[in-house]
Every structure is written in C-alpha cells, then in structure tokens.
Amino acid sequence: MSHSATVHLLRHGEVHNPDRIVYGRLPGYHLSERGRAMARLAAEELRRRADDGAAIVHLAISPLTRTRETAAPIEELLGLQARPDERLLEAGNHFEGLHVNRDELLRNPRHWPRLLNPLRPSWGEPYREQVRRMSEAVKDAAAEAVRIGGDGAEAVLVSHQLPIWMVRSGVEGRPLPHDPRTRQCNLASLTSLRFDDVRAPGRPSVAYCEPAAELYSGVIQLPGS
C-alpha cells in the first residue's frame, strides 16, 4: 500500500537588519515586527488548510533565531512542537557578518579566491551539499508525517531561502548555479512538495504560495537570509 505525504518548506519572515549585514548562520538575528506579522499570516494559512481537512502533524525547524520565531505561531495555532533539525540550516557563507556589495568585494584582494568559481560556489557551502542535506530532511519529514498521521499527512519545515530553492531546483531538474534574483522563494512563502509514496519516493510535485505577499512592499532582501 502506498502512503502519500506533503512537506511544506516555509521560509522565515523578515529579519530586523538595519545595517544590511549578511547574517547567514550568525545567532541573535530576530524577526522584525513585519517579519512576525508575516509568520502569523503563514501560520494562519496552514491553520486554514488544517480546518479544511489537511492533517498537518509534524513541524521541524532550522535551529536559528529567525526560524524558531517564525515557527512560534504555527506551534500556537496548530498545537505542534517544533523539532530542531541541523539539516535545515542556512547555507554556509564566507561573507557572513560583512556588509557586502559587489564593488567592495572586487576591491579587496582578500576576497578574490572566494569569487573564482560561482558554479560550486567558491564563497560558501556547495550547492550539491545543500540539495543532499535538504533532500534527506524532506524525505525524513514525509516519513515522520505518515508515521504520525497516516496516509496523506503533512509536515512543515521552516528553513531559509537558498536551501529551499536548492532542493526545489534539484526536484525540478534545474541547474543549481543561478542568479539569486530568479529564486521563487519569498519571505514566509510555502514551497510544498507532495510525494505519492514515501516508501518509494520519486520526484514530488511542487506547489508554491505567498501567504504574506501583502507585506512585501519595501522589503530589502539580502543573500544569506
């Protein structure tokens, strides 16, 4: 007997970052007031689906401040307890902690070795490694959802833009090197992967939505977020 499952990849809400630092995996970066509102809207969308019959039974998060805070309204509205999963972390980035722009990078010879290979990329965690760890986390979450809720159950994983985009690109057969401006993974968005059979997981179908779209006006997005 096959067991289907859906895994929703939720990107965190807007972070308070007035200095426009590439914060990456740094601790202590909290959601802004607007980011908390974004997280609430995403949670309300998930609760609406649960009210319509979706069995959302499992919640896991990247163990960073902004993802924990994004998960808080889901815990409240759906009665779930978030489980930290290191595989959902933001991508490693050499420029973490810096206020970076293209001209600054090119002027500083210290950074040049990190700019040599955009296909890997040379400035951070390899794209293929991100796909590997995120794919494992997604498959485990699908299996856990079925274990808890049976056929058709659903899980929510709260993560970050680049890792989410990497696993989606892997699923859809898209080249991993890309222009960051082309990512369809906005703040507090849901990228949903549906597996027809978690015991023999093939390529899942993909759906995407932006519950917090009404709050996007004026938002500044940086790499490593």
From TrEMBL:
Signal peptide: none annotated. It holds the Pfam family His_Phos_1. Gene3D superfamilies: Phosphoglycerate mutase-like (3.40.50.1240). InterPro entries: His_Pase_superF_clade-1 (IPR013078), His_PPase_superfam (IPR029033), PGM_Phosphatase (IPR050275). One of its GO terms (cellular component) is cytoplasm. CDD domains: HP_PGM_like. SMART domains: PGAM. It comes from the Bacteria. GO terms for molecular function: phosphatase activity. This is Histidine phosphatase family protein.
